[in-house]
């Protein structure tokens, strides 16, 4: 101890610093360790790409009822730089979902014979029973830390405008249907306090109790479409751009996005699940503190700007459907009601790939450059 104190923190060995940096869990920690001194900066790896990223993919059309096909991971910035996560599992070129730092991969976008969850940093693969025409897969927890205490929910195409939701637990031979009634295109799936919540593009919210000893088919239905249109008090009514669910700091939130020049283009509420299947939205959340929300197809989540220096605090990041390829991510600043639009990448405008933002993807741990 005396020798280390005499030399100061800058005398720590490169091997020890490298081991310490490998245990850091946030991008901010890796940023700070590089700011200590030249020796620390030379002995540790910096993030190869700040988190989170977007999964950009090609569909048969813009509808979320079509499975995603070819895909790439990209930074949510102007230019949309592509991110390399290493060699993909052989024979699984298509992505059908991203959740909890895992990618759901298949060998065919419509009629797969293999369905695998893949975590790129550990190169872990978990095989699931196959499903046809999968449009999304959302996980309740991190598979590497939750052991068998997790579930997967998938959306599956049923006819021209409908989907059904199915559930799988580790050890199950097949998927279990959650709701006998088919839903429209599913926008969001959220797990919160032992329940699964999902909402379709018509604003129908289904709640499923996943606690042990209960029937996962026991579904409560709430119609946000009876409540959300009445939130706008403007002289000229504004249409909803989307209604999403997200969990932030232990609370479940409802986010309402508006088209046009609404004075508050994004509003956040604490929902009340009242009797007779009534959703009530009375308490509005004006400030998320250091957190920001990430909304897209399927999985949604909240991140702290203190841990993820690439993001701005108190914002809503929305993975957009890029109409006419003008922009593909919108950032709603809750403190100023300003909407920042990240333009559609110029390099992709020149191609015919019709690449669209599909979902947000946040790797479990920082992805570091190789020294």
How would you sum up this structure, described in words?
- This protein has 371 residues and is mainly beta.
- It is built from 5 helices and 26 strands.
- It has helices at 2-7, 14-21, 27-33, 38-43, 346-349; strands at 53-57, 71-74, 82-83, 94-99, 102-106, 115-119, 124-128, 134-139, 152-157, 163-168, 176-177, 186-192, 195-200, 204-209, 219-223, 240-248, 251-258, 266-274, 278-285, 291-295, 298-299, 301-304, 315-319, 327-333, 338-343, 356-361.
- The strands form 6 sheets. The chain has a 5-stranded mixed beta sheet with strand order 15-14-13-12-21, with no helix packed on it. Strands 22-20-23-24-25 form a 5-stranded mixed beta sheet, with no helix packed on it.
- A hairpin with a 7-residue loop joins strand 23 (315-319) and strand 24.
- The protein starts with a helix and ends in a 10-residue tail after the last strand.
- InterPro entries: F-box-like_dom_sf, KIB1-4_b-propeller.
Summarize the structure.
This protein is mainly beta.
């Amino acid at each position: 101890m005396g020798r280390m104190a005499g030399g100061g923190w800058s005398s720590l060995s490169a091997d020890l610093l490298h081991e310490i940096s490998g245990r850091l869990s946030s991008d901010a920690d890796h940023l700070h360790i590089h700011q200590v001194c030249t020796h620390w900066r030379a002995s540790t790896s910096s993030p190869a790409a700040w988190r989170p990223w977007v999964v950009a993919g090609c569909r048969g059309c813009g509808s979320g009822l079509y499975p995603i096909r070819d895909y790439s991971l990209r930074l949510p910035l102007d230019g949309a730089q592509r991110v390399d996560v290493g060699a993909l599992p052989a024979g699984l070129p298509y992505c059908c979902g991203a959740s909890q730092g895992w990618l759901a991969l298949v060998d065919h976008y419509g009629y797969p014979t293999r369905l695998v969850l893949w975590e790129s940093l550990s190169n872990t693969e978990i095989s699931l029973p196959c499903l046809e025409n999968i449009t999304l897969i959302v996980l309740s927890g991190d598979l590497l830390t939750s052991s068998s205490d997790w579930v997967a929910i998938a959306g599956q195409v049923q006819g021209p405008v409908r989907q059904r939701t199915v559930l799988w637990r580790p050890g199950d031979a097949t998927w279990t249907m959650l709701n006998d009634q088919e839903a429209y295109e599913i926008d969001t799936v959220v797990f919160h306090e032992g329940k699964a919540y999902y909402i379709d593009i018509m604003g129908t919210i289904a709640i499923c109790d996943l606690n042990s000893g209960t029937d996962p088919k026991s579904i409560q239905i709430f119609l946000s479409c009876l409540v959300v249109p009445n939130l706008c008090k403007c002289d000229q009514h504004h249409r909803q751009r989307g209604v999403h669910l997200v969990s932030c700091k232990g609370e479940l939130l409802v986010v309402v996005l508006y088209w046009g020049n609404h004075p508050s283009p994004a509003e956040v509420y604490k929902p009340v699940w009242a009797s007779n299947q009534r959703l009530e939205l009375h308490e509005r959340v004006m400030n998320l503190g250091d957190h920001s929300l990430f909304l897209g197809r399927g999985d949604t989540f909240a991140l702290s700007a203190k841990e993820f220096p690439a993001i701005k605090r108190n914002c809503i990041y929305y993975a957009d459907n890029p109409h006419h390829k003008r922009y593909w991510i919108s950032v709603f600043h809750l403190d100023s009601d300003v909407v920042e639009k990240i333009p559609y990448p110029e390099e992709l405008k020149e191609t015919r790939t019709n690449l669209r933002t599909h979902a947000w993807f946040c790797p479990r741990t920082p992805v570091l450059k190789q020294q």
